[in-house]
Every structure is written in C-alpha cells, then in structure tokens.
C-alpha cells in the first residue's frame, strides 16, 4: 500500500492525525504532512480509516 496526501486540497481539519499520528502530522499552517507513504502492515487499517475520515478528499491509498 502507498498513501498519497494532496497538500493543495487539505483543509487542515486534523482528523488524519487523530486517527494515525504515526503516519500524519500537520505543519504550522495545519496542512497535512505525510510521515511515510509506505505504512507497515500494522498501520494499513489506520491509513484506510484516515482516508475515510478526511473531509476534503486530500488522502488516498493505492493498494499494491
Ligand atoms: S484529515 Fe484531510 S483535511 Fe484534515 S488535516 Fe488530514 S489531510 Fe488535511
């Protein structure tokens, strides 16, 4: 799996960080920062949940 984060679409809600703080952070403008685009197997469910909870559609995952 690969995670993609479109910073130009992010509205800074922070949901992704609440769901998976080991995958996502936010910069000083609250825009998402992807900490890794290749989650471990144990992180994959959280990555999918973050995509589902992102209100702007900035996040997506690409399955291998
Ligand atoms: S959940 Fe979506 S809109 Fe909110 S900070 Fe994360 S990427 Fe941005």
Explain this structure:
The chain has 64 residues and is α+β, with helices and mostly antiparallel strands. It has one domain (2-62): Alpha-Beta Plaits (2-Layer Sandwich), CATH 3.30.70.20. It has helices at 15-19, 44-53; strands spanning 2-5, 24-26, 32-34, 59-62. The strands form 2 sheets. It has a two-stranded antiparallel ribbon. A two-stranded antiparallel ribbon has the order 2-3. β2 and β3 (32-34) form a beta hairpin. The structure holds iron/sulfur cluster (SF4). Residues 5, 10-16, 24, 26, 32, 54-56, 58-59 line the site of iron/sulfur cluster.
Topology of helices and strands:
Blueprint: E1 2-5, H1 15-19, E2 24-26, E3 32-34, H2 44-53, E4 59-62
Antiparallel strand pairs: 1-4, 2-3
Q: What is the level-2 CATH architecture name?
A: 2-Layer Sandwich
> What is the count of distinct domains?
1
CATH topology, which one? Alpha-Beta Plaits
Structural class: alpha+beta
Task: State the separation between the terminal residues, measured CA to CA.
Answer: 5 Å
In short:
This protein has 64 residues and is an alpha+beta fold. The chain has helices spanning 15-19, 44-53; strands at residues 2-5, 24-26, 32-34, 59-62. 23% of the residues lie in helices and 22% in strands.
Quickly list its features:
64 residues; 4 strands; alpha+beta; binds iron/sulfur cluster; globular; two-stranded antiparallel ribbon; Alpha-Beta Plaits
